[in-house]
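In the previous chapter we treated chains in isolation. Here, by contrast, the input contains three separate entities that must be folded as one system, with a combined length of 499 residues.
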Amino acid sequence: MAQAKTYVRPMAGWWRRNPYFVRYMIREGSSVFLAIYTVILLVGLYRLTQGQAAWAGWLAAMTRPISLLFHWVALITVGYHAYTWWKVAPKTAPDLRFGGRPLPEMIITVGGLAATLGASVLIYVIVRWL
Amino acid sequence: MKRSHEPIFWSLFGAGGVLSALIAPVLIFITGIIAPIGIWMPPEALDYPRVLGFAQHWFGKLLILAVISLFLFHAVHRIYHGLHDLGVHAGTGAMIAAYGSALAGTLITAYLLLAVGF
Amino acid sequence: MADGRTIEIEVLRYNPEKDAEPHFQSFQVPFSHDTSVLQGLQYIKDRLDGSLTFRWSCRMAICGSCGKMVNGRPELSCHTFLRDYYPGKVRIEPLSNFPIVRDLVIDQSDFLKKLESVKPYIIPREDKDVKDGEHLQTPRQMQQYYQYSQCINCLLCYAACPQYGLKPEFTGPAALALLHRYNADSRDRGWEERAELLNAEQGVWGCTLVGYCSEVCPKHVDPAHAINQNKVNSTMDYFGVRKFLMPRGGA
């Protein structure tokens, strides 16, 4: 099947050309902040094994402005991860039908968000008072 | 056609995704914002005896290991595939670096949780 | 047709015999409240520049021929209206992620190969002769795959899928949705035969759940759902537990 030469458009910058893709890249980018936060926790665990003074040092580092800035940004991006996770979770669910009608995706999304809220409240209460 | 081994990494990614979707925001909020500032959470909430006691308890160890390991496996999976989205041709080397670092983080955490005592 | 207003339509042109690269060309097109983007293109071809080349057929969003990028979004040009862009301009390009043959016409041959590769036909569960009658199916059984059978092969989902653009080996949304359509059909037992493709990197594992495919689908097929629920199936299959959890072999 002979064809005149076709033109293949370059992919570079594809995600900047559509707001939907920008949001996708932010969603994916949240993983960088989650990774850094997890390493911070890992370092904290290490300091814990080194004794009281080392642990106090880690706690003090958490009060530094750069740390607070990082954690604010991490909270927003990881929060966005949590929100988008529950929004897309229904896509991995099987085709469930009840009385012939499909399960509304909202149920899984709202359920997930409710679980996040519940878990958050529970953890806050435990850390604060128990 | 080769069967992909993605199911292994996707399962870890998924488990980490659920766990982080549920509790990562509140953990970041508590450890990174309100406890350091001392608003809605007295700084004493994270003092040494309290956190040590938690890390020495079997349940605390389980939770800490799950959080660090699964968060890492979730993040490296997204970062590795994200490189491809950015046009970076990430080959086997990048794959080993990514999942290898998550594995390393897991093993270090397990070791430290033993080192912290019971 | 016109009510006195005109709108600027900017079209990507490419003549393989003359051009090294595509370039934009603008036209002023009269329109009224019910003029589709397709009709705008037809006005250009009929009255302004007969060399403009583009695909179309039914004019009613069922044939799947007229897909174009309209202001950066994959749309059926017969199903999109100039009034919604006025007074801004309308930028029309060929569907993304496909090679351009000429002007707004893309080379779909890769998609046709992908369609074939999923074995898009019933592999019968029952060994029946024609004289024994049809394979029976209840309305409830049909519901299980019906939405995935509504695909009109318009390729908007491929234009929407960055993974297809980045790695054309990826089977892609519509073909994988069709694969699921057959696996989910109670008359079919082809899971095993389609599994090699489904479980491969170019099967479901090429998808990163961007989800834009389902956003742009004019028939609400939801290919993202077809693909991602099969990541679960593929995972169960990988760990050898699919037969326990899905003994009938369906989707």
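Chain C has two domains: 5-106, 109-245. Residues 213 and 234 of chain C are 21 Å apart (CA to CA). Compare these points with the single-chain example from earlier in the chapter.
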